[in-house]
Amino acid sequence: MSPRLLDVRGLSAGYRGIPAVRDVDLVVDAGEVVALLGPNGAGKTTTLLAVSGLVDRLAGEIAVCGRSTAGMRPAAIARAGVAHVPEDRGLFARLTVRENLRVAARRSRPPIELVLDYFPELAPLIDRRVGLLSCGEQQLLAIARALVADPKLLLVDEMSLGLSPVLVERLLPLVRRVADETGAGVLVVEQHVDLALSIADRAYVLRHGEVALHERGEVLRANPQLLADSYLGGPRAD
Ligand code: ATP
What we know:
- By secondary structure, the protein is an alpha/beta fold.
- It has a domain at 1-81 and 199-238: 3-Layer(aba) Sandwich (Rossmann fold), CATH 3.40.50.
- The chain is 34% helix and 28% strand.
- The chain contains 9 helices and 10 strands.
- A hairpin with a 2-residue loop joins strand 1 (4-15) and strand 2.
- Helix 3 (97-104) packs parallel to helix 5 and helix 5 (135-148) runs parallel beside helix 6.
- The longest helix has 18 residues, at 165-182.
- The relative contact order is 0.18.
- Bound molecules: adenosine-5'-triphosphate (ATP).
- The site of adenosine-5'-triphosphate has 10 residues, from helix 1.
């Protein structure tokens, strides 16, 4: 059995003491791509931020690689193996591609050259300032930057934001490759549901801050109505 990289139990998390997600159970195992889906405001970003320790956990447990993250600061959670690609990509626009990668790289971790194998498009841009890159190139870099930290668990929030569907179609298989080749677990929030499902082993649908559906990717690919119902409000499922 693959090791459990992320184990979220009964999570409530939110802002100024008010929960935006409630009673969320969610797991990610090694080598898995798990999609976190749901309408706007459902709590997807909040869930990712809670895993990274960036929003308050109001109740429940989060364990990364078998270790509870209770009381851990975001930096410690990152050192425990969590890399987070945020919605805004979190890059340093004034620094070059190389400098952005260096900032994230850990000593004795995979060299930048190795990570660039995944993203050959970045190699000729290595000394270019990030602010001069296209949106697609910046997104590639955001993922590359997460990879140089050699994560066990990769959280990717709305990778497709501001990108053309054609680019998204190219980027998402890269995420699959990362999981397959590095054994990292990936939790990906994505608004292009069909594309997300094309690479996901399993998916959770959040609605109004709660898990409305949890199902294997192949089941959802074969039954699109199941997904549509969960967005609109069918019965709760585990
Ligand atoms: P989207 O796809 O629109 O990003 P989402 O599913 O990621 O949506 P969240 O961004 O997690 O949803 O938001 C969940 C709820 O938390 C929403 O009601 C939102 O208004 C609220 N919320 C998000 N960020 C904050 C914040 N910084 N302060 C207060 N409330 C917030």
